[in-house]
Design goal:
The protein is mostly helical. It has a domain of 102 residues: uncharacterized protein from magnetospirillum magneticum domain (fold of a uncharacterized protein from magnetospirillum magneticum, Orthogonal Bundle), CATH 1.10.3540. Helices cover 59% and strands 0% of the residues. Helix 1 crosses helix 4, helix 4 runs antiparallel to helix 5 and helix 5 crosses helix 6. The relative contact order is 0.15.
Length: 202
């Protein structure tokens, strides 16, 4: 009797609703740290238009993407997002995207960090395309993505990398020096979430 192979969990692919969202996170994180309730946080941010979306629908869409990312961060990490440097905030929001979206996390670990560790200096669409094709062999949902959506997913991911300071606009990998407090937070995960960064630490 044949044993059925376990089904792999489907990749969530909704991250095109926003790029890194670090600026918005700096506004929303302090509200949560005061309220310690995400429903209340969402309501307050929307009511006061704290992220200053031009239209209510845009506000709702950005919050719908931002809050699930913030929810995968610890309170200590949220405190850094709220009052840390823009560099620290960018690093933690990249970690949040990697935790929230398995596809991004695997790309960061298997392609970005691996290329950095093997002394490759660049990261291009070509590497993403190869990575995506390999994952599509095991994930039917990737084959269901339209050509337009595929391009959007790729474009947004690379824009996140640039905004997080991990990649230049010319596609050069930027070695990362994590602050001690960010590294400490990332190292609380097993394995360490430093694996999502072009760094030899962790």
């Amino acid at each position: 009797m044949m044993t059925e192979m376990p089904r792999k969990s489907r990749y969530a692919l909704s991250f095109t609703a926003g790029t890194l969202l670090a600026t918005e996170a700096a506004v929303v994180a302090p509200v949560y740290l005061r309220e310690h309730d995400w429903v209340s946080t969402r309501a307050q941010v929307k009511e006061s238009n704290l992220i200053q979306g031009r239209v209510a629908r845009s506000n709702t869409r950005v919050l719908g993407e931002l809050i699930p990312r913030l929810q995968v961060l610890s309170d200590a990490e949220l405190e850094i997002v709220a009052e840390g440097t823009s560099t620290e905030r960018g690093h933690l929001m990249w970690a949040a995207a990697c935790r929230r979206y398995q596809l991004i996390g695997e790309f960061a670990e298997e392609v970005l960090r691996e290329r950095f560790l093997t002394l490759a200096s660049t990261l291009t669409y070509e590497e993403y395309d190869s990575f995506y094709r390999a994952k599509a062999m095991w994930h039917d949902e990737l084959d269901e993505v339209t050509a337009l959506s595929y391009q959007k997913l790729r474009q947004v991911l690379f824009k996140m990398l640039v905004e997080a300071g991990l990649l230049t606009k010319q596609g050069l990998i930027e070695p990362v020096l994590l602050s001690s407090r960010v590294a400490e937070c990332l190292n609380l995960c097993t394995p360490s979430d430093t694996r999502f960064f072009p760094t030899r630490v962790g």
